[in-house]
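REQUEST ID: PR-0412
SUBMITTED BY: lab tech R.K.
PRIORITY: routine
TASK: structure prediction, single protein chain
INPUT:
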Amino acid sequence: MSDAHQKNIALAATHLAAHDPVLAPVIATHGLFKPVPHTDYYWELVDSIISQQLSIKAARTIEGRFLDLFGGTQPKPEQLLRKTVEELRAVGLSRAKASYVLDLAQHIADGQLQLDRIAELPNDAVIKELVAVKGIGEWTAHMFLIFALGRLDVLPVGDLGIRSGIQKLYGLDHLPTPPEIQDLATRNNWHPYESIACWYVWQALDNAPV
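STATUS: complete
OUTPUT:
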């Protein structure tokens, strides 16, 4: 983690603790935001597709079989495109997921998705490029922004964990809607550290995605 990123994480925790009395004790308990941004964007997206709607254990098992198809290493898009849907299904991917990882590989191979420049784009543009790939929706794009690119200002209002965590933390009698989450974030001055606030919400729920 760079010194600048570490400093921003510390500033985020201080800001949120000062402005949101509900998050303050969670921050005191869990310390600073721990995930570190990285540049392995391609595998991050492959992994996100494989892992969709699976337990961690099941996802890791299938990922291991997937990698075995390529000698135990992460395949380049061109290598992946040499495999058929049936070959990918044989290692545990559903037909849909097999088609999704192939679509991702095709987008990269033909230049529609340029991961070497994606970190230069604003959040909205990143989301637009990612959701053009089959099997990648807004939720996956939000997770990519937070955990791969290290963006601090992402508010994944559609995430069930965030909705459940906010209901629990803030004593709501219902799962908050996306507009209600946005309103709560505004009232508690989460900006420009929405990602960090959400990480603390996940911690409080004790089912953090990382």
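NOTES: The two ends are 16 Å apart (CA to CA).
REVIEWED BY: pending
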